Amino acid sequence: MEVLHNSMYYVGAAALILIGLYVILVKRNLIKVIIGIHLLDTGVNVLLISVGYIKGGKAPIFTGTSLGPAQFVDPIPQALVLTAIVIGVGVLALALSITVKVYQHHGTLDLRKIKGLKW
Amino acid sequence: MVASLLIAIPFLGAFAIPLFGLVSKRLSHYVPALALLANLIISIVLIPQVMSAPIIVSIGGWAPPLCINLVVGPLGLLLAILISLIGLLVAIYGVNYIQEEPREKYHMLLLCLLAGGTGMVLTGDIFNLFVFFEILSLSSYALTAYNKDRGGTEAAIKYLIQGSIGSAFILIAIAFLYGLFGTLNMADIASMVGGADPAFLFISLALLIAGFGIEAAIFPLNAWLPDAHSSAPSSVSAILSGIAIETGAYAVARVTYTVFNADGIMTLIAVVGVITLLIGEMSAFRQKEDVKRLLAYSSIGQMGLILFAFGISTQSGVFAALFQLVSHTLAKSLLFLAVGYMIYRVGSKKLSAFAGLGRKMPITGVMIAVAVLSLVGVPPFAGFMSKFSIVRVGLQQHSATYTGLVVLILVATVIEVGYFLRLLQILFFTETETEGKRMELPLSALIPITILAALIVAIGVYPHIITHLLQEAANGLVERSAYIQSVLGAL
């Protein structure tokens, strides 16, 4: 249990990533696949944050000299996640707007039936 | 600081297009061409300076390991020149070709795509590489669906789903690398990579190759490519086929060579490259219906060839890979641009509709023949020189594996000859009912096509125009300690 307790955030991140991949691979509904992509993104963001996390660390905002650098969590992964969230929102918006068009053309969101282009 | 303009100008142009559109719709359609012309001039002017030493641009005034930096080495500059050249020609072509509204958005996305590609090849920071990669892929998803037709939207959603899984993988790998080394600078990671835990390194390398491999259309990851390249508007197909997948291959090469120094997996990359080549060429041979799909499969094959040459981890192998990359970019963009207007004229993507078109459009027909023969590898065109150098380097390895792979490459070339000569036969030697009546392409399409064909012939006849730059670029990729020193030494 001790190991699990110490690496809780990594376990959570890995679980989210795997759930996301599972949803993308298994679900047939386009909207659900897009939700899966977002779960995957969120899992990666949690992973990034937990890489820079220090137990009991403060938010990396410089407020005075009373706290040393070791007491802050690493700010770089947080900056990365901020960028990744923005990119994720962009992908999500684009995916949903293309989905609208796909539905207009095919009349369905079932991925098994959307196969106008074949190999 | 001039080097950072290479990224700044296209972005500035992209976001200024809506403003120009307020003044005059017509004016805004010329912004991409102007921005890319500026880019082309700047990057050509930078050549002598970069040949002597790479330019390191530190953003924010911090020294390299701390800041986001740009590394304008010979390899980055070569690809930046290629991107701005092809981008410029496609922008000229697109002014008249794209008729579907809203046209400003097309031009804006095109500039974003090219800016993302330029950023990818020039950056020295692995997270920055990811961000530019995302800019490139997001714009290409949107451009694939630009016509909003049945095929385009379907291809775009497939491309988007596969592409976002790829970028998630890249981000996981970046998280691992940051956890291992505490830095995101590629040179800094490269200098410390020797002492790290091999298991974590292997996982992150595999994730990075899988992520960028989706964009580079490496064999099991290329399901999106034939759909996206054949359903997008033809000018977009030219960009996707000529630039987007090449930047993916660049990222794979940069990560394996510079960052990880992964000599052990090079043979695997060569083998995967040859499998990609065979699969691509055989699928193209089977394709008797859709001409753009045929070209798309041929792009997969050519990417396999480039990967094989990257897998020969010597300076001359990388040289051959880059040479093949240049000649494929020129020829495939030409083919997509020429075929785009032909489809527009005959109203169908079917190969059978193209019967006799080469005689009705003699100039375009000749240009297509030049590109096709160059891709197949017939002298005196650029494709011959590049394919010849790949085969020669492969045989020089004096190992049974590489010699066997070269044999497979020659087999694939025979398949390639088969389907490309069938294309030429349909274009030139098939009788049609509606003879006569010439219908040449408009000037805005003929000029880019002619420039590309002229470059193919010029490089084929006199390869010394680019071999010096290619040699330097190959050195820049193989000699990783020089790369590390030039970035970290510039304190």
Please outline the helices and strands.
The complex is a heterodimer of chains A (119) and B (491).
Chain A: H1 2-6, H2 8-26, H3 30-51, H4 75-106
Chain B: H1 5-23, H2 25-28, H3 31-52, E1 55-59, E2 68-72, H4 74-97, H5 103-122, H6 126-144, H7 150-181, H8 186-192, H9 198-216, H10 224-231, H11 234-259, H12 266-286, H13 291-311, H14 315-346, H15 357-360, H16 362-376, H17 382-396, H18 400-429, H19 443-461, H20 464-478, H21 480-488
Helix pairs in contact in B: 1-3, 1-5, 3-4, 3-5, 4-5, 4-11, 4-14, 4-19, 4-20, 5-6, 5-11, 6-7, 6-11, 7-9, 7-10, 8-21, 9-11, 10-11, 10-13, 11-13, 11-14, 12-13, 12-18, 13-14, 13-18, 14-16, 14-17, 14-19, 14-20, 16-18, 16-19, 17-19
Descriptors:
heterodimer; A: 119 residues; mainly alpha; Helix Hairpins; elongated; B: 491 residues; 2% strand
What would your notes on this structure say?
The complex is a heterodimer of chains A (119) and B (491). By secondary structure, chain A is mainly alpha-helical. Helices cover 66% and strands 0% of the residues of chain A. Chain A has one domain: Helix Hairpins (Orthogonal Bundle). In chain A, helix 2 packs antiparallel against helix 3 and helix 3 packs antiparallel against helix 4. The mean pLDDT of chain A is 87. Chain B is 78% helix and 2% strand. Chain B contains 21 helices and 2 strands. Chain B has a two-stranded antiparallel ribbon. The relative contact order of chain B is 0.11. The interface between A and B is medium-sized, with 36 and 34 residues.
